[in-house]
Write a structure and sequence with these properties.
Rossmann fold, ThiF_NAD_FAD-bd, 492 residues, 19 strands, alpha/beta, Cytidine Deaminase, domain 2, eight-stranded mixed beta sheet, nine-stranded mixed beta sheet, 15 helices, THIF-type NAD/FAD binding fold domain-containing protein
């Protein structure tokens, strides 16, 4: 199991402003956390900050907690069903901080108090004041802490402090020189360590996965339970007629192409042949730092929309809509891109997700011609072409660069919409709704209201494909292709 910590930009600012003092002395602070539990990673989400009252801590060059402060904070955490965080600052330090003997003794002593009252492990955190870097450790017992691999601050600018001993800085390879020259080795070292999930392996998702791999990311995941069909070949660039004839899964095709494009010295591609609308898919998604939403259905988009806030995983979402005249000529094309993080409106507030469509999608009514006609609705558009899907993936990847590299010192922009017929780029003026159920559930973690449901329909699709026997000639061609791919991979 891996461990990490995440917080909103607002929470980070509040804790930083308290811990970094004008007189240069250390300070201490308490907070609470909830857990977000994935398959391989558990993340502590900072929930609330508990500021000290008069006399509850001592500042004397070094700073120390009083037992009264720790007890008060522990009881507040227990009342909310949350765990306790104890923080302190190293004003003159930078990067991931280790523990001094005094800090070790303090946290190990308070571990029993926190566990006894909250029934959850104590979380210790340190702020390096020179560069606002965080470090974190979980105290599962008083003997030694278990160190987190990263601490993430999630806002329109994603910032990550990495534990270099656990998640090492990837080496810059000769094929990454142009990439590194665009934003520097330090930024590349952070971007390359991000674990990024692409949900949807169609025309846009397939392109995004390859370009992430080419950028030097060491870990990319692709989630899709569908297979390549002949009808996909005019958009899924890189998928072959053999892929369609074999009915290969989209995740397998994406894995093959991403491996071919990868520039990292050691590249891992994870195949998730599951649905994001199932709890199995949600658990897998919680292992990632950033998610690309390359799906076009209301239900999966609603799940991803929620995770961006409840679990503080930035979700980069977009899509395309093409419109034609009755005689078949093209009327217009619109593609959009936006990043879902605290501080930016969710899909529902943007008007990109209609809540009432979620139960219809669950029941399959959005694909039922009789229902569509009876409800006087328009059939959902499935049109897309290779020449324009590249524009969608480019828009999403530009959001990723803004989120992680902060060009010009800025983060992600307001939601963008490109209108092809007028060749205009529109910035959305949408704001967050004050009663938005998605945004008000920020940092809910494992206490989130579930949107995903256990379903057998996607499992049946996967089972049918994986058990179907293909003609001998296709199997021979597939074996030859696999042999060639392995031979090519040895050239790297």
């Amino acid at each position: 199991m891996r461990y990490s910590v995440a917080m909103t930009g607002e929470a980070q600012a509040a804790m930083r402003d308290h811990l970094i003092r004008e007189d240069g002395q250390e300070d201490v602070l308490a907070a609470t956390y909830v857990l977000s539990t994935g398959v391989e990673r558990t993340t502590a989400l900072i929930k609330s900050v508990i500021f000290p009252r008069e006399g509850e801590r001592h500042v004397h060059g070094n700073a120390s907690f009083t037992s009264g402060y720790v007890l008060r904070a522990s009881n507040e955490a227990r009342a909310a069903g949350q765990g306790l965080v104890l923080l302190h600052s190293h004003p003159g330090s930078r990067g991931w901080q280790l523990l001094s003997n005094m800090d070790w003794e303090t946290e190990s002593e308070y571990e029993r108090v926190a566990r006894g009252i909250t029934k959850m492990p104590l979380l210790g955190m340190t702020l390096g004041g020179r560069d606002t870097s965080w470090s974190a450790r979980f105290w599962f017992d008083k003997n030694a802490p278990t160190w987190a691999e990263s601490v993430r601050s999630v806002s329109p600018k994603l910032t990550v402090t990495w534990n270099d001993d656990i998640r090492r800085v990837p080496h810059v390879t000769p094929s990454q020189q142009r990439t590194v020259s665009s934003w520097g080795e330090r930024t590349q070292g952070s971007i390359a360590r991000l674990r990024v999930l692409v949900v949807g392996g169609g025309s846009v998702g397939l392109d995004v996965a390859q370009r992430l791999a080419a950028t030097g990311l060491a870990t990319v995941g692709v989630m899709d339970y569908d297979a390549v069909e002949t009808v996909n070949l005019d958009r899924m660039i890189g998928a072959t007629r053999l892929d369609a004839a074999l009915g290969r899964s989209k995740v397998d095709v994406a894995a093959r192409l991403a491996k071919s494009a990868a520039t990292a010295e050691s590249f891992e591609i994870y195949r998730h042949e599951v649905s994001i609308t199932d709890p199995v898919g949600v658990s897998a998604a919680l292992d990632y730092d950033v998610i690309f939403s390359c799906v076009d259905r209301p239900w999966p988009r609603a799940v991803l929309n929620a995770l961006a806030y409840t679990d503080l995983i930035p979700v980069i979402d977009g899509g395309i809509a093409l419109d034609t005249f009755p005689d078949g000529r093209m009327r217009n094309g619109i593609w959009r891109a936006h990043t879902l993080v605290p501080g930016r409106p969710c899909m529902a507030c943007l008007g990109q997700l209609v809540i009432g469509d979620i139960p219809l999608d669950k029941q399959g009514l959005l694909d039922d011609p009789e229902y569509i006609a009876g409800a006087h609705r328009e059939a959902p558009s499935r049109q897309n072409v290779a020449a324009l899907s590249a524009s969608v993936s480019a828009a999403l990847l530009a959001q990723f660069v803004s989120l992680t590299a902060h060009p010009g010192g800025r983060g992600v922009p307001a939601p963008l919409r490109h209108v092809l017929s007028t060749h205009t780029l529109e910035h959305s003026a949408a704001t967050s709704g004050p009663y938005c159920a998605f945004e008000n559930a920020a940092t809910a973690g494992d206490t989130r209201t579930p949107i995903a449901e256990h379903r057998e329909d996607w499992r049946a699709i996967v089972y049918e494909r994986t058990t179907k026997k293909r003609p001998l000639r296709l199997r021979v061609l597939a074996a030859a292709e696999d042999f060639l791919q392995r031979a090519i991979s040895r050239l790297k």
